[in-house]
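Collaborator request, handled under Task 6.
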Amino acid sequence: MRALTTTLLVGGAVLAGGSAWAASAGTPATVPAPAVEPAGDVVAEPVTVDDAALDAFFGAGYTYDDAVALAAAWEVDSFEAKVLGGRDLLAGGSLPIAPGSAAPAPGSALTGEDAAVDAFFTAGYTYDDAVALGAEWKVEPYEAKVAAGQVLLAGDEPPIAPGSAAPAPSLDEPAAVDAFFAAGYTYDDAVALGAEWQVEPYEAKVTAGLRLLSGGGLPAPGTTS
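Structure tokens returned to the collaborator:
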């Protein structure tokens, strides 16, 4: 079993994995582990926001049901399977199942924010589109995905065409962590923010650093308890 913690925290929303999956006819009995498997007993850093990987996963034609199938084989949740699968694709690799080949997962009918995000990607929208919509609507990219997906589910269209937004600035995790410490924050601040946001300290550093890099605000260093 992979030792990974997956929490997506944006604007106070939490997006985690999906439902259980049972193998069905036509699905490989053994699915190889993803190429990003950590060696030995090393515990990997938590899987955090990785929109490039999600874009790669959905852009290759994979679906939520595929994610559930991969998740069952890799012993992770469906969100982690999307991220890990997308990272394999971005690295030039391939996944052990063909896009769209998984049988519908039992109880896989999506509801709420999950359904909205799925509609957003299924319509061909990308993370760059989410950033552009978020700037227009003055919300975080994740919230923009949900709002745009809800518009699509209602039979309407968001104000931009799928895939039409310019590439968003790349905000990687090391840069976010550097920004966190450069602003005067400490490990204790990360622990306090993590407790408040219900995530691990590392995820709190990344999330806080991304906010800082995108011009957002945080409590002053040393003031969070």
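The cover message to the collaborator said: "Residues 1-30, 36-49 have pLDDT under 50 and may be disordered. The first strand starts at residue 8 and ends at 10. Please let us know whether this matches your experimental observations."
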